[in-house]
Amino acid sequence: TTGISYDEAYEFARGNWNRVRNKGVRTRELESYFNRKAQKIDTKKVYHIKSKNKDVVCKMTVGTFAKDFPKGNYYVLVSGHALAINDGKILDHEYLISKPKRIVKHAWKIK
Question: Fewer CB within 10 Å: C terminus or N terminus of the chain?
Answer without folding.
Answer: C
